[in-house]
Amino acid sequence: MKASERFKNKAVNIVNQKWSADGVVEVIIYKHGWKKAYKFKAKKLYEKDEEILEDEEVEADVQGQTK
Amino acid sequence: MSDMPDYAAKMIRDLPDWRAVLGQDLDEFGMAFCAPSFGYTLIDYTLGVGEYLLIYDWSVVMADGKGNVYGEIYNVTRAVTIALCGGVQGFQGTFSKPKVVPELERVRVRGAHWEAVDHWLSAYLGGIILSI
Asked: Which residue range(s) make up the domain with A9?
């Protein structure tokens, strides 16, 4: 699952966002139990014409948790 | 949609304490390099299906200077401001009752300053996500 998909569909514990003047945002997500954080970059986040510029693959999730 | 806030609030009120304990911690941080006098989005978050965000505390700070800072928590879906505050170099606020953002709604923390030059503004939003 891609980081952007994970961010929108399941809850995480920590979210970092860095906004640029051109509307691009870098988002770092982390969930307790993960060995690392994952990053994606999007333009016009949540808008209809949203564009995902970079997207890391989330390799592992916390076992036994559905959210 | 107009009756949702009362419905959501009732659901939250009726939950025992342990239900909140089982909620998912959410700590959000955001930053932007901000020109004077404009409101900038520092944090933007949309709730999923069945998720309710209970906001307990928040802060906005000027990370690289000392000036007047204004911040607000804004519900984009309903186009309403649900909290606001200001201070010199920043502020921190704690709610004695949590601010509830119902499922599928979008919430933003926005910040502004009035210094002569651009500054970095950073924000924090802390709460719990309940999946009901």
From this structure: 3-55
CB A64 within 8 A of CB A46: no
Q: How far are the Cα atoms of A9, A29, B65, B69, B124 from residue B92, in angstroms, in the given order?
A: 29, 23, 17, 11, 9
Reported ipTM: the value is 0.86
With beta carbons under 8 A apart, name residues in chain B contacting A48.
none
Residues in chain A: 67
Beta strands in chain A (DSSP E): 14-19, 24-30, 38-43, 51-55
User: pTM (2 decimals)?
Assistant: 0.87
Give contacts of B131 with chain A, Cβ < 8 Å.
11, 67
Helices (H), B4-83: 4-13, 17-21
Within a domain: residue A67? no
Domain count, chain A: 1
Residues of B near A (Cβ–Cβ under 8 Å) read: 24-33, 40-46, 48, 51, 106, 129, 131
Cα–Cα nearest to B99, from B59, B78, B126: B126
| Domain B4-131 = CATH 3.60.10.10 | no
pLDDT in tens, B35-65: 999 999 999 999 998 899 999 999 999 999 9
Q: Which residue has the tokens 């007047």?
A: B68
Question: Which amino acid, one-letter code, is at A54?
Answer: E
